């Protein structure tokens, strides 16, 4: 049973560049959420996708955008990268919109982005 | 302001010893509280989910407690193993979309 897979695992970019991160949800899950985790901090919610639409968004600028495909996989795009965007980007999948009941998030291993 | 605070920030114990991690929250409205384990360089893995009416929940050597009156939770680890070395994050669900995450406690188990 494949869990959540993310790619790439590590990448290095320079300021001003753009990056695309990819996520395949766990089998049977249809909802994808993206989180940013700075070193030594808890994850910060970026946004959630369900039925190919952004359903909820955290406190992140428009430079952060995403997409969900018909097969439920998702992409996170970050434009005009800043040094402060350096972080571990986590994708989490779940079943159904939102976090109803005790809906458990299944996380991927993350994509480590370093901005120089 | 919705907040989750965890203590201690980091903890070092010897293999085989017990330990307790603390989580205090000021969140409204409260839906449930989750403990996650995050190994270095990996995504968080759910350990327990506790609702308002649950006081104690166990998952193997992990036991979580919840006091909804004082808004405190603890995670007790019994007979620690080297593989328990990780960050343990307390997360409170506020709404169907919003989870408030603590900064985590970094636990190191030494042989």
The radius of gyration over CA of chain A amounts to 13 Å
Strand tally of chain B: 11
Q: Count every helix of chain B, treating DSSP H or I runs of 4 or more residues as helices.
A: 0
Largest protein-protein interface: A-B, 26 and 23 residues
Distance between the termini of chain A: 37 Å
Query: What class would the helix/strand composition of chain B place it in?
Result: mainly beta
Helical content class of chain A? under 10%
The SSE order of chain B reads EEEEEEEEEEE
Task: Give the biggest beta sheet of chain A.
Answer: 7 strands, mixed
Number of strands of chain A: 11
Low-confidence parts of chain A: none
Averaged pLDDT of chain B, please?
93
Which percent band covers the strand fraction of chain A? over 45%
Shape of chain A: globular
Can you write the helix and strand succession of chain A as a string? EEEEEEEEEEE
Largest sheet of chain B: 6 strands, mixed
**If helices are DSSP runs of H or I spanning 4 or more residues, what is the number of helices of chain A?**
0
**N- to C-terminal distance of chain B:** 41 Å
**Residue share in helix of chain B:** under 10%
Molecular structure report:
The complex is a heterodimer of chains A (116) and B (111). Chain A is 0% helix and 49% strand. In chain A, strands 2, 4, 5, 6, 9, 10 and 11 form a seven-stranded mixed β-sheet that branches. In chain A, a hairpin with a 6-residue loop joins strand 4 and strand 5. Chain A is globular. Chain B is mainly beta. Chain B has no helices and eleven strands. In chain B, strands 2, 4, 5, 9, 10 and 11 form a six-stranded mixed β-sheet that branches. A five-stranded antiparallel β-sheet of chain B has the order 1-3-8-7-6, with no helix packed on it. Chain B is globular and about 40 Å long. The interface between A and B is medium-sized, with 26 and 23 residues.
């Amino acid at each position: 049973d494949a869990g959540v897979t993310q790619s790439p695992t590590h990448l290095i970019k320079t300021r001003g560049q753009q990056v695309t991160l990819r996520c395949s949800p766990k089998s049977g899950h249809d909802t994808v959420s993206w989180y940013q985790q700075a070193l030594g901090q808890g994850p910060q919610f970026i946004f959630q996708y369900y039925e190919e639409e952004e359903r909820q968004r955290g406190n992140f600028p428009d430079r952060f955008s995403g997409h969900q495909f018909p097969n439920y996989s998702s992409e996170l795009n970050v434009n005009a990268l800043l040094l402060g965007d350096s972080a571990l980007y986590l994708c989490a999948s779940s079943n159904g919109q939102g976090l109803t009941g005790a809906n458990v998030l299944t996380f991927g291993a993350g994509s480590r982005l370093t901005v120089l | 302001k919705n907040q989750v605070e965890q203590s201690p920030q980091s903890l070092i114990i010897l293999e085989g010893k017990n330990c307790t991690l603390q989580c205090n929250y000021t969140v409204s409205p409260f839906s449930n509280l989750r403990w996650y384990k995050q190994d270095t360089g990996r995504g968080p893995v759910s350990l327990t989910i506790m609702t308002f009416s649950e006081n104690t929940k166990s998952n193997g050597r992990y036991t979580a407690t919840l006091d909804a009156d004082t808004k405190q939770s603890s995670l007790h680890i019994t007979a620690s193993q080297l593989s328990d070395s990780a960050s343990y994050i307390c997360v409170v669900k506020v709404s169907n979309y919003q989870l408030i995450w603590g900064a985590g406690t970094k636990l190191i188990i030494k042989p």
